[in-house]
Specification:
The complex is a heterodimer. Chain A is of the alpha+beta class. Chain A is built from six helices and eight strands; from the N terminus they run ααααββββββαβαβ. Chain B is 70% helix and 0% strand. The longest helix of chain B is centred in the last third of the chain and has 27 residues. Chain B is globular and about 60 Å long. The chains are: A alpha+beta, B mainly alpha.
């Protein structure tokens, strides 16, 4: 069976060729590739700059920092029904999540948590990370009723303005008031909140 | 946010790191572009691609040599289906907010390229899933119809006929868009 010529070569319509070429040439950002390599444990350097830069006055969490991941009960408040604390030894993962956007799952025998996106608020004034879980992570928290030694393998902060996509899918349950919510009563997220990902590897 | 619901067996030290690295390096762009052309915004495509490779990492020993793309493609489609249940329909409009939020991190791409991709995605979004998949794999990822047939587990004749329909439809959509743009 003969292969038809591809449109990008055969078409006489320059507009069509332009569109196809634009699609074909689009490439992912280096950070996406790097992050994935880190997440599976084969990456080189670790971008610890995100959270550190965001936290500024706090001690940065760096690759290899020892930490403890524990699930603790929390009062149900809106959609934030559980929390966990990641405390690095001699350092601090700073920030308090103001909206639940973290999903924790067991990735492998060692890589136990690749978090989703936490929106950190109150930067610079906090000494520990309280990451609010969305309900789909609660089960994990309940089943993991113990402190688990972990190692921070990557911390990445996108540090980009919250997008419309963010605000549409990461809203806490109606009624939850955020610390920096300029429209009290209306669930929203701060438009400039940093987003950080923390990748943890179980150390035993 | 992406969900993580992965098996306990492992992306750990037992997995050969070089193989994982090679898998990622060789196919990252393919998976990522696939997500993009399926309508995911860049940030979501980043997340989704990572999830695919996290899964791939857990199953390195089960991926047969030469079928890496097929495996990753299957994972990607599975992930895409979940993503689509969360967002009712991919946003592919040409509004300024979407342009800024989606593309701002990639400033190296000029505006013309961004607009072209927006138009491309808008046209692709109007194709049915069956046609769009084959069109993307053939015209953008340059897979052969034989590879596509294997990937999708379809007869080659079906791939060929769907590709013809997809191309006709795509050309019609692009032509219509041009007409609309040129109409005062």
């Amino acid at each position: 069976m003969k292969e038809p010529a591809r449109l990008i070569d055969a078409s006489t319509d320059p507009e069509l060729v332009r569109l196809l070429r634009a699609g074909r040439n689009e490439t992912p950002g280096d950070h996406a590739l790097r992050r994935t390599l880190q997440a599976v444990g084969v990456g080189g350097g670790v971008a610890a700059s995100g959270l550190a830069a965001a936290a500024q006055s706090a001690t940065a969490v760096t690759n290899g920092a020892a930490a403890t991941l524990s699930a603790s009960a929390a009062s149900s408040s809106g959609g934030l029904v559980a929390s966990t604390t990641v405390t690095a030894t001699g350092a601090a993962v700073t920030g308090a999540a103001s909206s639940g956007a973290v999903s924790v799952g067991t990735v492998g025998a060692k890589l136990i948590a690749a978090t989703g996106i936490a929106k950190w608020a109150g930067l610079g004034a906090l000494t520990a990370a309280s990451v609010a879980f969305v309900p789909d992570a609660v089960e994990w928290a309940r089943n993991t009723n113990q402190a688990i030694p972990v190692q921070v393998v990557a911390v990445e902060g996108a540090q980009r303005p919250a997008t419309r996509e963010d605000t549409s899918r990461k809203l806490p349950t109606r009624g939850t008031k955020l610390e920096h919510d300029p429209h009290a009563g209306e669930p929203t997220v701060a438009p400039t909140s940093e987003q950080n990902r923390v990748y943890l590897r179980r150390t035993q | 946010m992406t969900e993580l619901a992965l098996p306990l067996d492992a992306c750990d030290s037992a997995a050969p790191p070089l193989s994982a690295e090679r898998l990622i390096h060789e196919h990252f762009g393919f998976v990522w572009r696939l997500f993009r052309r399926l309508g995911l915004p860049r940030a979501d495509a980043d997340d989704a691609t990572q999830q695919v490779f996290l899964i791939g990492c857990t199953k390195l020993d089960r991926i047969q040599s030469g079928s890496e793309r097929s495996f990753l493609y299957g994972c990607a489609l599975n992930h895409f289906a979940k993503w689509r249940t969360r967002v009712s329909r991919p946003e592919v409009g040409l509004d300024a907010a979407n342009l800024v939020s989606d593309e701002a991190p990639d400033m190296e791409h000029d505006l013309d390229q961004r607009r072209a991709r927006q138009l491309l995605d808008r046209a692709l979004a109007e194709l049915s899933d069956d046609l769009r998949t084959i069109f993307v794999l053939y015209e953008l990822e340059e897979l052969s119809s034989f590879e596509i047939a294997n990937l999708l587990e379809l007869p080659r004749g079906t791939v060929a006929s769907r590709l013809r329909r997809a191309r006709d439809e795509f050309e019609r959509l692009v032509g219509r868009a041009k007409l609309q743009r040129n109409t005062p």
